Every structure is written in structure tokens, then in C-alpha cells.
Amino acid sequence: MLSTFLAVLRRDLLLAWRGRADVLVTLAFFTIVVCLFPFGVGAEPNQLRAIAPGVLWVAALLACLLSLHRLFAQDYVDGTLEQLLLSSEPAALWVMAKVLAFWLSTGLPVVAVAPAMGLLLDLEQGGLPVLILSLLLGTPILALLGAVGAALTLGLRGGGMLLALLVLPLFVPVLIFGAGAVEAELSGTGAAAHLLLLGGGLAGALALAPVACAAALRISTD
Amino acid sequence: MLEVHRLACLKGDRLLFRDLAFRLHAGGLLRVAGPNGVGKTSLLRLATGLAMAEAGEILWRGESIRRVREAFHGELLYLGHAAALNDLLSPLENLRFACAAAGDATDEEACIEALVRIGLADQLDLPARVLSQGQRRRVGLARLFLSAHRPLWVLDEPFTALDVHAVADLAATLSAHCAAGGMVMLTTHQDAPFARAPEVLDVGVFAC
Q1: B177 sits in which H/E element
Q2: Cβ-based contacts of A19 with chain B (< 8 Å)
Q3: Cβ pair A82:B52 closer than 8 A
Q4: pTM score, two decimals?
Q5: Which residue on chain B is closest to A82 by alpha carbon?
Q6: ipTM for the whole complex
Q7: Residues B47 and B137 grouped into a single domain
Q8: What is the pLDDT of residues B125-183, one digit of tens each?
């Protein structure tokens, strides 16, 4: 049972490595979006410091959204998705592998450069660990929820726009608790509650999203 | 044994065919025939369980394929129009992945042997994007050599883009699979030199 999971994970990571330009584009997008804010709102350190958690989280969310449509598109076009759906292994399992590979190749790099972007916006040092932790817990939720949206909009004309409309409202709670965690830590109330809620959200998404995503893929390929 | 009863297929808002029925016994070779657009590929996709039928039922060993989906898919090999090749991976990587994803234990030696046998000995490590149409088709067909344990083969236009020798080889492979008690269901517009003439199912007869 694990062999299908590992085969899909290995292949998707290998594909991400061979198509690493896509990963760099996502990272560049994240960096540029964050850099736009000082130009837009002015380079006043106090102001930047105040908006830093929200800006970093919104940028991470948009970077994730930007690459979501790639999750199943190529496999859908070349017929790999049909073959995966005909596997005798449960579909939720390899969906999980695909989402994990997606997160490792797009979510994790964003989490890795986020502290540097935090310093750019003069985020206080004490907020950085919580920022990283909240992104580590939150971006997998974005990937899991986004995967359901990507599966539902597969093969549709203008699917990218529809995907954004479909999943952005679902991303709102993650954004609130993710950015909220950093702000709570900086204001001295402690980030534990926010992080626990994010953790709970991740556990729920891990349990439900792969099954929903598998069902959506069956509908899309029908 | 694959049995199909009173099958109807709706594509968009058009009914393609209805009351379609056939039986495929062990050792049977069924050729699905009919003009373009009559619903041959749709029938194949229904028979694999990839698509949902509007009406009717499909039984595998007497049980609805909806109910025994995982067991049924373990005994099925489907090769569709698209060759399921990723352009960034080599034929060997693609084949190994296809076998692993289907749930078969894969051994690199066996995959190499299958690719050599299908005539891709020199292309093992090239990225799939540089392969010709016929070569891409062959990578998909190499799975046949690794899927003898799956009794039911459903093949959509397997002869497309193949040269004369490859067509003869493929026909021999399919005939051998049937002779060993397997079942093959395929669509083709081409006459292939099968050992025994296939049964023909004309979808046009059931068209609406």
C-alpha cells in the first residue's frame, strides 16, 4: 500500500527537481509581492513592522495559489491521472503523496525564505520563530484545501480564475490564525492558541481533504 | 468474465448509445467497432469504471464493478488514447512509475527487458519529449509485458502510429494473452493479423 504512495511522492519530487524553474518562479513571486509593500505604503519602519505578519502571510497564500493549478494539470492532460484512478490502491493515498510533494516543492521553499522577508519588513526578532511555525502549520492546510479546488476545476476553461474564487474564501481562517499568531506573540499574549487552532485545522484537512480531492478527481475525469 | 447489460451512455446532453450488451469470456478477444464519434472510447472508459454509465450495469465475475472496484482494478490494464507519459521522465522512469502506481511490484530489470522487447533499447534514458509518436505508444504498450497477471486488457487504439512489424508483434502478444486465458477488449480501425479472428461489437447498432 505504501509503495504507490512512495512511487507518486518520488516521481513528483523528481519532476519538481527537473522543472525547478517553476519553483524559482513561485519564490520570486513571493519575494516581489513582499517587496511591493514598502513601495506602496512607504518605508516607515513602524508601519512596516505593524503590517509585516499580514503581508508575509498574504504573499505566502498568493504564492501557493499561483502554483496550485499545476498540481494535477499535467497528469490530467497526459493520461497519468486516469492510470492513477485505475490503481487498486485507495485514491486518497496517492492524492496525499501528490499534495505532500507539492508542499515540499512550493510551500517549504516559501517558508524557508519567509524569515529573510520578515527582516526586510523589520519584523521583530521574537516574531520570527512563530512566523516560521505558523507557516509550517498553515501552508500544508492551504495545499490540502487548494488541492480539492484544483481537482474540481480540472479541465475547465478559465479554471485558474475559478480556482482562485473557489479556494480564497476557504483560505481566510488560515490567514486569520496564521497572521494572528505572529501578532499575538509580538503583543505579548502568546501564540499558543492560534498555533493550536492551526494544528487542529491541519489535522482536519489531512483527514478530510484527500478523500474529497479523490472524489473530485473522479468527477473531473468522468 | 466481463458482462455488460443494457448500457446507456450520455455525452453532454446527447445519448450516444443505449441497450448495449455483451459478454467477454476468458480467452475472448473483442473488437469494438463503429464510425468516429459513435462512442467506442466512451464504452471503453465505462467498462474500466473511469466513467459513470447513464443506465445499465457492468459486472466483473458476477459483481458490479462499482462494488468491487479495487479488486477489479487490480485485474485490469487500461491503455487509453493518451500514453500517460511525462515528457520530463525517461521511458524507463515512466514505465516503472506506471507499474508502481498501478500497484504492481516493479523490478527495474523487468522494466528494462520489457522496453528492450518493445524495441526501445536505445531510448531507455532519453527524456520522453524527444520520442516519436510511435515510440511513445510503445512505452505505454511495454506495460503489456509486465501485466500478464492482469486478466482483462482494455486498449484504446493500440495500433495507432505503430509500424508494420510492431503491429504484428502486438497482435501476437494479444493473441498469446487470450490463449493463456486472458481477455482483451480493444478499438481499432486497422486490420491486425490476430491468430484467431476477434469477435466484433459494432457500437453503431446501438446508437441513438
Answers
A1: helix B164-179
A2: 88
A3: no
A4: 0.92
A5: B50
A6: 0.92
A7: no
A8: 899 999 999 999 999 999 999 998 999 999 999 998 888 988 999 999 999 999 999 99
